[in-house]
Amino acid sequence: MSRPPASPGEPCAYEGDAVLTHGRWHDLAGRLASALAGYGLGRGDRIAVRMRTRLEWMVVSLALGKLGAVQVAVNYRLTPPEAEHILRDCGVRAVIADDGDLTPLLRAWEHLGLRAVVGVDGPGTDGPPAGGLAAGPRAPEAVSLPALLERTPAGEWPEGTFAPMVVYSSGTTGAPKGAPLGGWNNRPDPRVLADYLASTGFDGASGGRGNRTMITLPMHHGAGPASVRTAIRTGGSAHFLRRFDAEAALALIERSAITHWSSVPTMLQRIMKLPGHVRDRYDVSSLRFLSAGAAPVPRELKDQVLDYFGEVLHEGYGCTEAGMISGCLPADHRRKPGSSGRPFRQVEVRILGEDGGILPPGRTGEIAVRTPAVISGYIGRGPLGPDQLDGDGFYRTGDIGRLDEDGYLFISDRRTDMIIAGGVNVYPAEIEAVLLRHPAVALAAVFGIPHPDAGEQPIAVVERQPGAALTGEELIAFCEGRLARYKWPRRVEFVDALPVNPMGKIEKRRLREPYWRGRDRAV
Q1: Rounded CA gap, 289 and 309, in Å?
Q2: Which of 215, 250, 378, 455 is the most exposed place for a label (fewest CB within 10 A)?
Q3: Residues 339-361: pLDDT tens digits?
Q4: What pTM was computed for the model?
Q5: In the CATH hierarchy, which fold is given to the domain comprising 419-516?
């Protein structure tokens, strides 16, 4: 679905008291595109964007779209050394960040040959030096975005659209891999793609003329930017909430008569844990579309959400490598409790047994999917191998589930050890690598255990070196400066010996089982 061109004075985005009109949006984006061109940046260049959920993201993305550059999404919570791998892997040439202090970024990345590190909130220089830039490697300079926008004329640029994106996911090894959104394995027929996209948008329910969409998801994932794009392209406005707070979200829904909101289960949990008299203060009747994804939605939470918000809850299941796979409509939640819905149109789902054979309905196995959005491969790693993408074009998700007789998909487990904490992917191998650097640690296993608010949280089970003395608090403190805080283990337990199989691999399933026993889903 698309809309007629908006008038320049029509608002397209809000954050707090700030209002951005379509005309001002394009003017600022043109100014930023011109400024970046002054740094020698242009079509095809990859520019990292490390920003919170804020209105300025729209200006940055449109500017990169006008420039013909590619936006590389970087989690703002990563430490500079952690983010360096992404910058190197993707060949990033500049960074736009809203860190309050750019100094740690400049120090960590001074050897990467970046053209500039642009501070969204300043400070920094006003722009490229007179006479242009010298060729060859150079230490990046901090550049002030407000100064760039004030001093640089917009120039002549195409109207443009949001920039294409690269987002980083990971395999079981935890090594970040860049997936180009829209980098399809086989370029789909336009009619097939249009039908698929309409279906994944729940046939217009996810947007529409006059929509007022609340944006709370992070902009370094695919879902946050997708919510913004859908809101604008279908004739509505984006309302940014930079830091999620349950009551603030309800207040924004009432104040701005929000009609659409894409969330993660943790956000819904926090709202439903507010005292009833607090929730009852707010009129949320304007909301007609509420989606939840990125992590399983517990059955009890679905019921609470439906009772409070009404029959507006849509649940989506998908992955970076294959796009959206299935969707659960409001009516499905009570009819098929625990289901992730039916596959979207133009999506085929197979359940594979251990031998790779296709299993019948009711049998549990690995979920493999064929969608118009399956990527061709990761940045710098060539095409997907046959262990990930078979000859029929089916992508093996690593998730475990079943299809019932009515074609509904139920997800029960996943093969990868990835933890989903509050809708954010956390990779145990990355945490284990840091813990093993402590001299008192012999072996470490990290996995997810249930958490009533976040869905999962990381726990570390550690085998000490013989004779070593080490407390859990000391080991958690060791993560400071080495891992983003959301990756830190919330608990550390010590054992005399970790269980290992004959190949020497730690048997995490044995460690995990006691925490997940009796749960609907073993994820």
Answers
A1: 10
A2: 250
A3: 999 999 999 999 999 889 999 99
A4: 0.81
A5: GMP Synthetase; Chain A, domain 3 (3.30.300)
